[in-house]
Amino acid sequence: MEIAIVSDTHMPRGPRRLPDECVSRLRRADLIIHAGDLVELSVLELLQAYGPVVAVHGNVDDVEVRARLPGSAVVDAEP
């Protein structure tokens, strides 16, 4: 199982976007974990387009993200 772990994407903010290498790894991953600070739900939706996502909210996430995501999560990733 290949897991991609990202956090603190702080998007959207200006012209920011995920680097091409990051997107390539996200597409190959069996599971994507985002460890907080997405900022807006649109970032979660972007990640979900690449594959299954487990995410938690961070301290800069907006009200919608905080309402949708937990503050912590446990992932059982047995091979």
Summarize the entry for a quick read.
This protein is an alpha/beta fold and 79 residues long. It has helices at residues 20-28, 41-48, 63-68; strands at residues 3-6, 31-34, 53-55.
Question: How do the strands and helices of this protein lay out in sequence?
Answer:
Elements: E1 3-6, H1 20-28, E2 31-34, H2 41-48, E3 53-55, H3 63-68
Parallel strand pairs: 1-2, 2-3
- How many angstroms separate the termini? 6 Å
Q: Total number of β-strand segments? A: 3
Radius of gyration: 12 Å
Structural class: alpha/beta
What share of residues is helical?
A: 25-40%
Unreliable stretches covering 5 or more consecutive residues: none
Element order: H for helix, E for strand: EHEHEH
Order of strands, main sheet, comes to: 1-2-3
Overall tally of structural domains: 1
* Global geometry: globular
Count the helices. How many? 3
Main sheet properties: 3 strands, parallel
Q: Bin the strand percentage.
A: 5-15%
Round the mean pLDDT to the nearest integer and report it: 91
User: What does the oligomeric state look like here?
Assistant: single chain
